[in-house]
Design brief:
The structure holds 2 protein chains of 2 kinds. By secondary structure, chain A is α/β, with parallel strands linked by helices. Chain A is elongated and about 65 Å long. Chain B is 47% helix and 16% strand. In chain B, strands 2-1-3-4 form a 4-stranded parallel beta sheet, sandwiched between helices. In chain B, strand 1, helix 1 and strand 2 form a beta-alpha-beta unit. The two termini of chain B are 15 Å apart. At the A-B interface, helix 1 and helix 3 of A face helix 2 and helix 5 of B. Bound molecules: iron/sulfur cluster (SF4) (2 copies) and FE2/S2 (inorganic) cluster.
C-alpha cells in the first residue's frame, strides 16, 4: 500500500486559515489501511480544525466526505455537487489523490493534509515499513523475494557492503541488512549459487530516472 | 462574571469505573457534580472521536476510566484506550486546547473511594486550567453577537 502520515497541525491550519468553508476529503483505500486519511481520520481532523477555529473566534463550515478512491476520476467526480459550496478542498489522500482532485476542480484551491511516505507493508499493527520503490524492473525473483532497492540503504545490487553487522545495517541498528536477509533466504531455498552470480548494473530508465512514467494498455484504453 | 465551574465528561467502563461510581453512591461518598458519566461496555470502546467531540461540544475536560492493568474483560481494551488518550494529548497540544485536559484513569469495581477521589482531583485540575479555550472564544463571540 501507499503509506502516509498526517502533516503537523500547524501546517494544515496555515493552509486553511484564510477560508471559512472547507471540504475535507478522505480516501477509502491505502490511507484508510495505514490509518492516515480514512473516514476516522477525517472525523478527527475536522474536529481538531473546528476547535482550532473556535479558539480564534472564527466559524468554520467543514464538510467531511470520504471517497472510495481519490486517484480515479470516477470517484473524484462525486465531489461535483459539493465543491461549489466550499472555498477550498483539504485532501487526506496520498499525493496522487490530491493531484486528481486539483486536476478535476481547476479553480478550487486544494491542499494536502498528509505527507505521503512510501510503498510498504504493515509489519505489526501500527507499524509500516518500506518495501518497494517502483523501479519498473523487479528483481525479487533473483533476490529471494527481498528488495535490495527499497530495503538496502545504499541500494546495492551485489551486497552486502562492509557495514553489515550481525544482520543489521550500518545506517541504523533498527534496520535489518537487506543483503543479510537475501542471503539467509537464498540459503533456505537452497539457491546459494544464485548469490554468486554478479548482477549487472541496473538500467534505471525504467525507474524515475527516465522521467514521469505512464502505463498504456491498448486493450483497455479508449 | 460567574465563577468557572468545569464541565467534565467521564467515559466509564461498565465493569469497573461505572460500578465504582455506583459503589461511591451507596457508600454515600460524594463526588463533584461537574463529572457527567457516560457508560461504555469497555474503555477500549471509546474512540478518539468520542473524546474530541466531547471537547468540541464544550467539555472542559474528559477522562476515560477503565479496569486496572491486566483486568480488562476484553483483554487489552484499557491499554488501547490509554494509547489513544496519549495520541490525542499530542493532537490537543498541537491545536492549543492542551493535552492535559484529557486523561486515562484505572480502577476496579470495588473502588468507590478511588472513583470519588479521582473525580474530585480531575475536576480541580481542570478548574485550575480554566475553561476549554475553544469554548471560551466561541462563547465570547456568541455573547458579543447577542449583545
Ligand atoms: S525490485 Fe523494483 S519493483 Fe521489485 S520490489 Fe524492488 S523496487 Fe519494487
Ligand atoms: S549494511 Fe546491508 S542494508 Fe545496510 S547498506 Fe550495507 S548492504 Fe545495504
Ligand atoms: S472491560 Fe473495563 S476496561 Fe475493558
Amino acid at each position: 500500500m501507499i503509506t502516509a502520515e498526517r502533516k503537523p497541525m500547524q501546517e494544515i491550519i496555515d493552509y486553511v486559515s484564510p477560508f471559512n468553508r472547507i471540504l475535507l476529503v478522505g480516501c477509502n483505500e491505502c490511507v484508510t489501511v495505514c490509518a492516515a486519511g480514512g473516514r476516522k481520520e477525517v472525523g478527527l481532523l475536522a474536529s481538531a480544525l473546528q476547535m482550532s477555529f473556535m479558539q480564534r473566534g472564527k466559524a468554520l463550515d467543514i464538510q467531511e466526505i470520504t471517497l472510495e478512491r481519490q486517484c480515479d476520476p470516477e470517484y473524484v467526480e462525486q465531489l461535483v455537487n459539493y465543491v461549489d459550496r466550499y472555498d477550498a478542498v483539504l485532501s487526506m489522500a496520498c499525493g496522487c489523490g490530491v493531484q486528481e482532485v486539483a486536476r478535476r476542480y481547476k479553480t478550487k484551491p486544494v491542499f494536502p493534509a498528509l505527507n505521503t511516505k512510501f510503498m510498504g507493508a504493515s509489519e505489526h499493527q501500527g507499524i509500516w515499513a518500506e518495501r518497494c520503490q517502483g523501479c519498473g524492473d523487479c528483481v525479487l525473483g533473483v533476490t529471494g523475494g527481498i528488495c535490495p532497492i527499497a530495503r538496502c540503504s545504499k541500494r546495492i545490487m551485489n551486497g552486502p557492503c562492509g557495514g553489515s553487522t550481525k544482520g543489521k545495517c550500518e545506517i541504523n541498528p533498527d534496520i535489518e541488512c537487506a543483503w543479510q536477509l537475501i542471503w539467509d533466504r537464498l540459503k533456505m531455498l537452497g539457491l546459494e549459487d544464485r548469490y554468486e552470480e554478479i548482477m549487472e548494473a541496473k538500467d534505471w530508465r525504467t525507474s524515475r530516472d527516465g522521467g514521469p512514467r505512464r502505463i498504456v494498455r491498448e486493450d483497455l484504453a479508449s | 462574571m460567574k465563577p468557572f465551574e468545569p464541565e467534565i465528561v467521564a467515559f466509564c467502563c461498565h465493569y469497573c469505573a461505572y460500578t465504582a461510581a455506583d459503589m461511591a453512591g451507596s457508600m454515600r461518598i460524594g463526588y463533584p457534580p461537574n463529572v457527567k458519566i457516560i457508560k461504555a461496555p469497555c474503555s477500549g470502546k471509546i474512540d478518539a472521536i468520542h473524546i474530541m467531540k466531547a471537547l468540541e461540544k464544550g467539555a472542559d475536560g474528559v477522562y476515560v476510566a477503565g479496569c486496572l492493568e491486566g483486568d480488562c474483560h476484553f483483554k487489552n481494551g484499557n491499554n488501547n484506550a490509554a494509547r489513544r488518550v496519549k495520541y490525542l494529548q499530542k493532537l490537543l497540544d498541537e491545536i492549543g486546547v492542551g493535552g492535559e485536559r484529557i486523561a486515562m484513569i484505572t480502577m476496579s469495581a470495588g473502588m468507590g473511594g478511588r472513583f470519588a477521589e479521582t473525580a474530585a482531583e480531575f475536576t480541580e485540575k481542570i478548574r485550575k486550567l480554566g475553561p476549554n479555550p475553544a469554548k471560551t472564544a466561541a462563547g465570547e463571540k456568541l455573547e458579543k453577537a447577542i449583545a
